[in-house]
Batch of 4 targets.
Target 1
Amino acid sequence: MSEKKKFASLSAPKGVPDYVPPVSPRFLAVRDAFIRQAHLAGFQHIELPIFEDTNLFARGVGESTDVVSKEMYTFADRGDRSVTLRPEGTAGVVRAVIEHNLDRGQLPVKLNYAGPFFRYERPQAGRYRQLQQVGVEAIGVDDPALDAEIIALADRCYRSVGLSGYRLELTSLGDRNCRPAYREKLQEFLFALPLDEETRHRASINPLRVLDDKRPEVQEMTADAPLMLDYLNDECREHFETVTGLLDDMGVAYTINPRMVRGLDYYTKTCFEFVHDGLGAQSGIGGGGRYDGLMQQLGGQDLSGIGFGLGVDRTLLALDAEGVELPGTERRVDVYGVALGAEAKKRMAVVIHQLRGAGVAADMSYGDRGLKGAMKGADRAAARYALVLGENELAEGTIAVKDLAQHEQVSVPLTDVVEHLQKALQNAL
Ligand code: HAM
């Protein structure tokens, strides 16, 4: 390898976004706002492994799904075990609930997670190979009120960051009692169509997926396909009607999309997706649903569950598309110290340290930048206050506090500056 080649610059893997300032504070603001809403609704944090036994996803998510059959980052570790970078969170949560007997206590078990997931998808705007989700799972109670709570919570997550230009789509996929009969009806319909070999094969493995085919000619052929909503048994229909009724009562707007197809196999009954039209092709900003057979499939009790995964990356893109500001995310620190001269610098370092100790976000200029250069630092940090300390102030035992929003300046005794700023910041809120 040539010397030049050896030191060629490296970039992040294809399809993997970096979040660096000034975008990274927006990323945290969205992620943390979602987590806060989940905690407000009584969900507790679960920290999941980033990689799991490959079988977990094969069994949990479904071998016929694109996620499992084409998109997993699977490799043998040094002990020759097949492990997979988690493509989603639900299977891992259910595995952990079973492993730690959480389902033997108070039900539902309500858990919240956040972090990166990995899918080897074809990268494009809003479609990444490392994607970030905030998710919740409520396990152990088959109550439609829980479905409504979860859906309303997802809606509130988006509203809490100021997003509004999305719609909520809803359907029911039935359960193990009514779905098989529907599946047969759908297959009967599909097999009578002049489908190509591959689509016919898909119809035999997972007929619902054919309804999701984006090719206009297939869409046209399947326009009159039988729909699950028309084949729900009484229990599933009542369940779905209770969910929609509760959403009406809560004022959560939705549209019914009987042709919705989720990319994971575990779903039963209520399924939903949040769709934003400002993102181009990758319009799903979040989704979820009920998964009543999953726990048993993973070796646990036969308990039901429901949850969602909200895409943080796509929510950020949607916020950009809507031009929504996230308050406070431009501000790096509240207070920025500018000291002129060696002695003043030493004193400023102590003041900044004390400010941080008092819970005030503070930073100062370093190096010999002069007043003008150092004040630029205050601007770049979008600080609310600048502290200026020169030889004269130091001799007098004072410090200048500049209010950068009001363009006012006061002189404060050095000994009082921490308290002064604490109060000023509280009033400025
Ligand atoms: P999902 O629909 O596969 O569901 O993913 C949830 C959200 O993650 C999507 O709506 C989207 O916003 C985001 N997402 C997925 N793939 C990508 C990607 N390649 N690039 C960027 N964002 C992406 C699940 O993962 C389920 N575990 C959700 C759930 C929880 N269902 C029940 N409980």
Target 2
Amino acid sequence: MDKESLIVSLKKDGYLKSPLIAEAFRAVDRKDFVPEDVRDSAYENIPLPIGFGQTISQPLTVAFFLELLELKKGEKVLDIGSGSGWLAALMAHLVSDEELKTGHVVSVERIPELKAFAEGNIARYENLRSTVSVVLGDGTSGFPDEAPYDKIVASASAEEVPAAWKEQLKIGGRIVAPVRDSIVVLDKVSKDEFNKKQHFGFNFVPLVKGLTN
Ligand code: SAH
């Protein structure tokens, strides 16, 4: 499959709706975010191994995440689980306002080698590298230094949405996070109140507490 056929199939299956997100898929090429040995499969609608028992997410999941996030230019986003950096780079493309110099993605990864892999992949995109900060850490506690966030997204699944993410979200903001085999959407309506929606039928690597060393 080539890039355009992938986009067409994601549209046909209802995962990809917004023209801006389709444009982000064209601009931020999945081929630049997968290891060389699986590059021929970059446009297959499957997760692919990136080492350390981890995967770059399936394109349909990424499209679904991006649709649910409803990102706008200038927003500040927290991304838990950088992995390959593909989702972080796609989000940077969508929030970056080049004129106003606003829009920021903070991406947290717990495996040092993958933090470096994500950074290296994102650095290929001259226009996006200043929009993304990849940090090493346990994303279970979010990243308080840059809080509050307009949006928070995670690519690794937990038993429940960590309290730190709810605290670090702006009122009016949204969390999109895997909980077991589902995707939970939480809208923060006041300091302690959230509206919840849940979408079933997905697969994720687990959110692991603590660092590797
Ligand atoms: N968004 C990534 C998906 C990577 S898979 C992409 O576009 O490629 C999920 C990632 O979450 C893995 O790299 C894994 O190491 C990381 N992860 C798991 N638990 C974590 C935690 N507690 N803190 C930060 N990263 C974590």
Target 3
Amino acid sequence: MSQQVVLTGIKPTGTPHLGNLVGAIQPAIDLSQDNDKRAFYFIADYHALTGLKDAQLLRDYTKQVAAAWIALGLDPTRVVFYRQSDVPEVFELNWILACFAPKGLMNRAHAYKAIVQHNEDNGESDVDAGVNMGLYTYPILMAADILLMQTRWVPVGGDQVQHVEIARDIAQYFNRQYQRAVFTLPEAMIDEHGAVIPGLDGRKMSKSYNNTIPIFGTSDELRKRVFRIATDSSRPGEPKDPETSTIFQLFRLVATTEQTLAFRQQFLAGIAWKDAKEQLFAVLDQLLTAPRERYRDLMSDPVAISDVFRYGAQEARDLAQETMRHVRLAIGQNLL
Ligand code: TRP
């Protein structure tokens, strides 16, 4: 049986942090080890462009994200790892799919609706203020990414499920119109421990809350960050509730079961916050020591990353061109 395609896009809009690592990077790398599946992971740089117009930043984030995934264990000979903008077929398909995407479907997309809502709440006379067409048609480009590679599974966070459903809808409109299964129907795949990963202040770890733990700083920087985690005022010796502690929640995401059980006991026995932080720092530091070095090497050797992208784009384009042959034939672009 041929392998099912699993594909996901990574928007290069920030420096990778611990939330990205446990929420997306690690699960995706684990999934790529599954022999029943063929993994396609790519840097969605043209999706980033809808909001990120600073060339230097886009360049930096693209390199950082690629280096992070490789440093953390993505094997570019096993995963087709590429940059969206290196696959022109994506943009050809984007137009074709746009012709199958009802405008109303875009109006109902959450990200767009949230901006409209924000404008309304702020008494803005133009409800579309701040919306460019790239943002508005973002789900179509995403559908092109997905359908081009005949994707079956799309690992994403909860906020992207609707986009995958839109891709599936568009695929169905197309297949139905031409009475043939040109596109595989994709489905979102949500990691079951898609639990919210808390940041320094206890809210979801997110760049926009400025509460992240960056993964590729120095050991010293890591320690400082960990020591900034908010705690309550309970004193050493007082029992502490592991379930409400950010320190414990982060610890369990990166430690072994035995370590976690022992840590829990220490909480109940009244560990001092500073000792708890020291232990969290220790597991994180150990986990990140080797990747940190690989990351530094990759970042100082941009040729290595561009080589990976070049190789990945070739593989991706092979499949993309095959899909496009079927698409062009279906819509009647062939003259014979
Ligand atoms: N929109 C996704 C995000 O913001 C990134 C993305 C772009 C994507 N194209 C994709 C994810 C295709 C899955 C499949 O995270």
Target 4
Amino acid sequence: MKIIEANDYQDMSKIAADYIMKKVSTSPNIKLGLATGGTPTGIYSNLVADHRENGTTYRGVTSFNLDEYVGLSGTDPNSYRYYMDHHLFDHIDIQKENTFVPRGDMDNIQDGCAQYENLIQKRNGIDLQILGIGENGHIGFNEPGTSFESKTHVVQLTHSTREANARYFNSLEEVPTEAVTMGIGSIMKSREILLLISGEQKREALKKLFTGDVDESFPASVLKNHPYVTIIADKAAIGDLKVHS
Ligand code: PGA
């Protein structure tokens, strides 16, 4: 794993956005794996600003999102489909039909999971996956204990994850209890991974990633087995951890 040190959240977002823009410019048909949550909003606003100012085009890009809440339709402001449209897709020239987010409102959610997994493979997989990390080491909504072989599946959200996400809802009770997520095995098939880590509240997670064992009790640790991972972390997340030997 290679690590790039950023000064702060803004710097991390700019470095990551530049990295993605460069990839999109050199590979116009790139397949991106995208993430939601607080971490990537700064990246998306940089991509939107660059699209407006410099015209970087996304017409040939396909995207696959990591996860979605079960029970929310894409028009629900708390759904991740809505988040992606609002933060990115509505402001760049990506073809909406080439943007894929797991459906949380399907009658047969198990079939939906299998279809999503097949779709990614049918399109020949993800070239560059953007990832955040949970305080408990989750990637996507793969909570501690999830099999490293897992494919797209339904998960029960842990109390800590629901608490962390309650800030977007009116109350904790409104936070869905289940989600659909790409599995750890699905994520690991991506040819390249860009992991973003910002803020003091992620310091323990970053430390564990660097110093801990590869173990299913800490999902992100699997990334140590991936050949092409770049971490962009800010100073608040790094703290006094020695990230360069
Ligand atoms: P955050 O979430 O970006 O909102 O901190 C990251 C994650 O839980 O994967």
